[in-house]
Amino acid sequence: MAKEALPVAAAAVSAPPLKREKPGPLEYMRRWPLQLMVGLTLFFLYLPLITLMAFSFNDSRRNIVWQGFTFKYYEKALNNDSLIEAFVNSLTIAFFCTVISVILGALAAVMLWRFRFPGKTAVEGTIALPIVVPEICLGVAMLVFFARVMPWPQGLPWPLNLGAITIAHISFAFPFVATVVRARLSSFNRELEEAAKDLGASEWRTFWDVLVPHMQPALIAGALLAFTLSLDDFVITFFTSGPDTITFPVKVYSMLRFSVTPEVNAASTILIVVTVVLTAVGLHMQNQKPKESKA
Amino acid sequence: MQQSWSQAKAAFAAVAVPPVLWLLLFFLIPLGVIWAYTFGENVGPVTIDFTGTFANYARALEPLYLGIFWKSLVVAGLTTLLCLIVGFPVALAIAFATPRTKAWLLLLIMLPFWTNLLIRTFALIAVLREQGYVNFALEWLWNNASGFMALVGLQPLGAYEPLTLLYNNTAVVIGLVYVHLPFMVLPLYAALDRMDRSLMEASLDLGAGHLRTIWAVVVPLAAPGIASGVLITFIPALGAYLTPDLLGGTDSQMIANVIERQFKRANDWPFGAALSFLLMYLTFIAIAAQAFVQRKAERRG
């Protein structure tokens, strides 16, 4: 008897606390009122999205009651040329916006982190401004700018015709990148930079081989942020897009204005899956340790 | 610590010129032009004279538009309050969860935030409309209640009347809460996670209940986080365009919808410009208020 009881007691001591054990004073997640609250919140956040995705497979036009599984709305969405064009436009804009925003954001972050210069507070404030200015204000400012001050030439070949929208997106996306990169730079040990220079590395070489590897996780996070901000944007694009430069959100908006069809569900599901996959890839890359600087 | 720009002029120019030039050309100049328009007058269908008039601002302060500003502030304030009420317990639960659960919950809260705003609003329409899931669930409950009452010999309830949950102010607030909840949860979580837990333990040991501990210890300590969560939620809610446009009715116009109309349909750019600058000033006031709270909290801490 005693032989049998002993290992059980030992297991009970070393095992993680059982479910039925009273939660510790600060283990709020193990108390039912908070569990209920978190559960309800997640339900509230996900119910609309999950039903939207589920009913893109529903074989019924009015998409209320389940009528059977179908891919036909995906077929319809994929055969809708203007929808595909809008989707390709959105991805193209997001790509260029990401590349340029990461460069500009990183440069701005290095400038603010490394240098003292007259008017620094003003520059710092101005870089933060696009983050806080309401989208609608930036949207109308871009509308007026591209209508009156710097008209974007009409009828340019793709992808140059998307220039105005891309510029507008970069203007609000790169300050986000700058913020993320600057936070990362504050953990940089400046002695490394000095050491590199003492050992004869040029300014450029130091930047590329010492500073950039340190910034890498923030650059990936910033790129992810810029990409989703651009892909997500409706308001600013709505004011800068022309009849030939429709983006995916603008297209979905006009489809919604006419009627709510399962085709929109299908197109939205594709976009949700694309964003989730990209986010997963981005987070995965971010969690990997930055590569040792090249010898 | 920081290097003076004159010590490395070439390096400074290389990092400073591209972003500063971009900001000047594609951000400050567009805003400057809009600002100039606020003092302009429409003289033809496309020509605008910069006459230095204050008529646009005067018109924006008429009761009709003042009412819309007030309404936007109330809607944004209510949204922020609801987000805080829902978001605080959620952030608290996440901050004190086990590392594994914490990572998953944070991902689950952030995922909708990466999803397109338009798609999320569209998804909400399907849930809230008269033939949507909320009404279906209520109808089912109603019919069951009705059947139960018939069973026990009472007068059964009448036929279910679907609730109108869309195209009104309630729908706008629900939509804004739905969209902005992650904005509130994340800064709250960050503040609660950084907090010194021994203070909470001390409070609990000394006999204070959980609610009292949260109110008297956690809230004051997390005040800067709460203030930034409130700001991050309030600003986009104040300038929201899409949610009131898609979920609102004729009387739920917010200020952004009025601005859009001036630029797209009414074609009164100077007036629209004046409204956008007033919205921007309101935003700056909100930021200044937040900075004030933050400084006060820091001085106390």
Description:
Chain A is 72% helix and 1% strand. Chain A is built from twelve helices and one strand. Chain A is globular, with a radius of gyration of 26 Å. Chain B has 301 residues and is mostly helical. Chain B has a domain at 63-129 and 165-300: Orthogonal Bundle (MetI-like fold), CATH 1.10.3720.10. Helices cover 75% and strands 3% of the residues of chain B. The two termini of chain B are 27 Å apart. Chains A and B meet through helix 2, helix 4, strand 1, helix 5 and helix 6 of A and strand 1, helix 1, helix 3, helix 4 and helix 5 of B.
| Secondary-structure content class of chain B | mainly alpha
Order of helices and strands of chain A: HHHHEHHHHHHHH
Overall body shape of chain B: flat
What proportion of the residues of chain A is helical, as a percent range?
over 70%
Mean pLDDT of chain A: 83
Share in helix of chain B: over 70%
What is the CATH top level name of the domain at 63-129 and 165-300 in chain B? Answer: Mainly Alpha
SSE class of chain A: mainly alpha
Span between N and C termini of chain A? 65 Å
End-to-end separation of chain B: 27 Å
> What low-confidence regions of chain B span 5 or more consecutive residues with pLDDT below 50?
none
Instruction: Quickly name the level 1 CATH class of the largest domain in chain A.
Output: Mainly Alpha
Individual helix count of chain A: 12
> What do we call the CATH homologous superfamily of the domain at 63-129 and 165-300 in chain B?
MetI-like
Summarize the main sheet of chain B: 2 strands, antiparallel
- Can you tell me the residue ranges of chain A where pLDDT is under 50 for at least 5 consecutive residues? 1-19, 290-295
Query: What is the molecular shape of chain A?
Result: globular
What characterizes the major β-sheet of chain A? none
